[in-house]
């Protein structure tokens, strides 16, 4: 029986990267899911939450949980998933058992495919050198891989497992395995100089490794890194889902 | 002492010297890598962190009892114990002791607490000749600036700058940049000051309640010389430095130097239990200061930050700290832990910028040897600051409007269409545009003709539920 999946499309992906949401849907269908999209969804409230505006974030959290109630949802943005799964608790929202279940049933794409469905093979072909950027919230809040700071054993990165199955794709590792790209939400504008400097350093690390493309589980990191690359030159960014639908 | 931090302004200034930022980032990243290697040699590193966190949680739950027990043992061991409520009381207490002993010359080893309390300028203004004896601290003292890092205070300076400073202040040859020769010059200069000093001031890494002793960790042995030679020793500690037993100290000593610099242990780990009985007239004073600690301990959401052992690991791993440098934070303790402690210890108004000086990447939380949930604390401080209306109103207003738009999907859809239609104008870098800071160094993608929801609607017209 096909697994019913509700697409959780972050606002900026909806407006600026529709092809990423479509690739996410295509990959999920290929994995045997029945893909749905509830058009009432807008934003999970992460910008409000990270700005400290808990009351504003709480309204959007409540909305999100009501819309996604009883569904399994999958998103191409790890930080939005972490907002739902790990930070809806912090906002003073009254949560019932069904809400907790909705939060627990919210997944980032690669973890859903690999850890939930056990599907890693998509017959994709992408004959390029690719650097996998470990998005911080996917790594350190969702646990999608080994963290360079921790000594708690090796955790397989689902995104890496998926990329290793892509024909012609060569993974090239950066020297700093999980340094932040510098996006940080409103930080990217409030501390634009620091943010851009971090982004340039991150792009340079991937460029030195020989990467032609940077990919990640979070489109927001990629929006920032691609913005740097298209201004300064360097590897261009593509979401993991876009690579998985390449032939 | 606690001027309002101007994080944004000062970080932007530091960023302008791109070569220095590169070098500063790499020098400090090197410490992080050494820390990684050192932690790999400890088979039960994560369990050790758990253990340390549990001890610290116990300490914070029993602070008054531990303090009473410690003071009793310390007095029995011959310490003259003084309690100070705040920074000013600490300064006055230390000055009174120096006056009573008619001390003119003081050598001081590294103590972030006395930096926090502004002890140096207070004593210098009162005619005391005070010399910092930690090499990095001595360098920043000679430059009349605060430390930029709590473990490596002069890490923001390049070799050449230190050579020039020593040429001016110690008469080393012009152009001398060799670290060994510069260190020898500093050592010669300091030796005379050690011999002449009438009192030595130190910090305290750990205060052991079971024995009444204090533990001081240094790599240069300067605290040892500074306590062994002068007739009077004054140790200054924050009340949170208490630990119950010597066995607990063993846990922290395994974590501290590994987290700080990647050493298995500091070169000198000195236990002092009152005055030296073999030195007639030797006096040992201990000044214990609260300086906001009790208040913070009563703040359920943030009290864990009091567990900090000042190893500096969160500074070393912080991608923002490495590119902004410590001075940008404007506080004695910079970096993630400084941004968490700042609002409590120096005031939410003064430190309101700091919890936002982070991408919340979470690396600090992962390196912390006592498992302070630093990035969650930064986030929770943001909420507290917003509650107190200390987040700038344009940001709060933007978030309020955003939440309203996102609560109305039809409005959101409509607005999205207009924004994308006007995208070429919106993303033009014109002065005053809210996207201006983004566009300065980054492009934005061209806006697609249709959003995902528009495309989905078109593809699924007539079909139900996808």
Describe, in plain words, how this protein is organized in 3D:
The complex is a heterodimer of chains A (247) and B (466). The radius of gyration of chain A is 17 Å and the shape is globular. The model of chain A has no long low-confidence stretch (mean pLDDT 97). Chain A is built from 13 helices and eight strands. Chain A has a four-stranded parallel beta sheet with strand order 2-1-3-4, sandwiched between helices. A four-stranded parallel beta sheet of chain A has the order 6-5-7-8. In chain A, helix 12 (219-232) links the parallel strand 7 and strand 8. With 247 residues, chain A is α/β, with parallel strands linked by helices. In chain A, helix 7 packs across helix 9. Chain A has two domains: 3-116, no CATH class; 121-244, 3-Layer(aba) Sandwich (Rossmann fold), CATH 3.40.50. By secondary structure, chain B is α/β, with parallel strands linked by helices. Among the domains of chain B are: 42-291, NagB/RpiA/CoA transferase-like (Rossmann fold, 3-Layer(aba) Sandwich), CATH 3.40.50.10420; 395-459, no CATH class. Chain B is 52% helix and 10% strand. Chain B contains 23 helices and ten strands. Chain B has a six-stranded parallel beta sheet with strand order 1-10-7-4-2-3, sandwiched between helices. In chain B, strands 8-5-6-9 form a four-stranded mixed beta sheet. In chain B, strand 5 (206-208) and strand 6 form a beta hairpin. In chain B, helix 3 (45-61) crosses helix 12 (246-261), helix 9 crosses helix 10 (179-196) and helix 16 packs parallel to helix 18 (374-387). Chain B is globular. Chain B starts with 6 loop residues before the first helix and ends in a 7-residue tail after the last helix. The interface between A and B is large, with 79 and 77 residues.
């Amino acid at each position: 029986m096909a697994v019913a999946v509700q697409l959780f499309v972050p606002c900026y992906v909806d407006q600026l990267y529709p092809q990423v949401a479509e690739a996410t849907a295509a990959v999920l269908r290929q994995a045997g899911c029945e893909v749905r999209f509830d058009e009432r969804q807008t934003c999970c409230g992460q910008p409000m939450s990270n700005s400290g505006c808990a009351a504003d974030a709480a309204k959007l959290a409540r909305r999100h949980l009501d819309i996604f109630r009883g569904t399994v949802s999958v998103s191409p943005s790890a930080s939005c998933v972490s907002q739902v799964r790990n930070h809806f608790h912090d906002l003073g929202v009254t949560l019932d058992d069904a809400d907790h279940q909705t939060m627990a049933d919210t997944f980032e794409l690669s973890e859903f495919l690999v850890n939930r469905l056990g599907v890693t093979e998509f017959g994709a072909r992408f004959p390029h050198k690719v650097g996998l950027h470990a998005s911080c919230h996917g790594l350190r809040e969702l646990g999608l891989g080994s963290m360079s700071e921790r000594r708690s054993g090796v955790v397989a990165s689902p995104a890496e497992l998926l990329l290793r199955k892509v024909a012609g794709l060569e993974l090239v590792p950066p020297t700093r395995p999980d340094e932040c790209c510098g996006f940080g939400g409103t930080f990217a504008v409030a501390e634009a100089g620091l943010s851009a400097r971090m982004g340039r350093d991150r792009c340079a690390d991937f460029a030195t490794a020989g990467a032609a493309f940077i990919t990640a589980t979070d489109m927001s990191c990629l929006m920032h890194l691609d913005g740097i690359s298209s201004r300064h030159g360097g590897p261009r960014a593509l979401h993991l889902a876009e690579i998985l639908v390449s032939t | 002492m606690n001027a309002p931090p101007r994080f944004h302004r000062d970080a932007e200034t530091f960023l302008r010297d791109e070569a220095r930022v590169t070098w500063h980032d790499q020098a400090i990243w090197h410490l992080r890598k050494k820390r990684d290697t050192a932690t790999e040699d400890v088979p039960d590193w994560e369990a050790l962190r758990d253990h340390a966190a549990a001890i610290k949680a116990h300490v914070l739950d029993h602070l008054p009892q531990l303090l009473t027990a410690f003071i009793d043992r310390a007095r029995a061991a011959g310490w003259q114990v003084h309690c100070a409520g705040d920074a000013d009381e600490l300064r006055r207490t230390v000055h009174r002791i120096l006056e009573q002993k008619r001390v003119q010359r003081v050598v001081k080893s590294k103590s972030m607490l006395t930096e926090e309390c502004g002890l140096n300028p207070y004593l210098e203004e009162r005619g005391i000749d005070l010399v910092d004896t930690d090499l990095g601290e001595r360098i920043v003292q000679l430059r009349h600036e605060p430390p930029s890092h709590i473990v490596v205070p002069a890490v923001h300076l390049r070799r050449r700058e230190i050579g020039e400073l020593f040429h001016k202040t110690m008469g080393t040859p012009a152009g001398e940049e060799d670290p060994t020769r510069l260190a020898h010059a500093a050592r010669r200069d300091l030796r005379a000051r050690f011999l002449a000093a009438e009192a030595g001031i130190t910090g305290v890494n750990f205060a052991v309640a079971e024995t009444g002793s204090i533990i001081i960790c240094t790599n240069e042995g300067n605290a040892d010389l500074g306590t062994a030679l002068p007739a009077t020793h004054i140790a200054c500690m924050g009340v949170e430095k208490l630990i119950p037993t010597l066995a607990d100290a063993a846990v922290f000593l395994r974590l501290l130097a590994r987290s700080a610099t990647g050493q298995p242990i500091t070169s000198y780990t000195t236990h002092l239990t009152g005055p030296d009985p073999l030195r007639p007239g030797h006096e040992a004073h201990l000044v214990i200061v609260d300086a906001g600690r009790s208040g913070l301990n009563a703040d359920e959401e943030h009290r864990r930050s009091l567990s900090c052992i000042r190893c500096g690991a969160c500074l070393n791993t912080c991608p923002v700290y490495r590119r902004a440098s410590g001075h940008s934070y404007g506080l004695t303790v910079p970096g993630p832990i400084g941004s968490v402690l700042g609002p409590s210890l120096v005031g939410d108004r003064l430190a309101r910028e700091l919890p936002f000086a982070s991408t919340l990447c979470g690396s600090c939380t992962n390196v912390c040897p006592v498992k302070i949930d630093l990035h969650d604390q930064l986030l929770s401080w943001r909420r507290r600051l917003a509650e107190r209306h200390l987040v700038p109103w344009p940001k709060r207003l933007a978030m309020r409007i955003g939440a309203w738009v996102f609560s109305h999907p039809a409005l959101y859809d409509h607005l999205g269409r207009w924004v994308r239609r006007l995208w070429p104008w919106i993303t033009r870098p014109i002065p005053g545009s809210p996207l201006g800071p983004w566009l300065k160094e980054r492009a934005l993608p061209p806006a697609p003709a249709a959003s995902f929801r528009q495309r989905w609607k078109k593809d699924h017209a007539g079909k139900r539920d996808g």
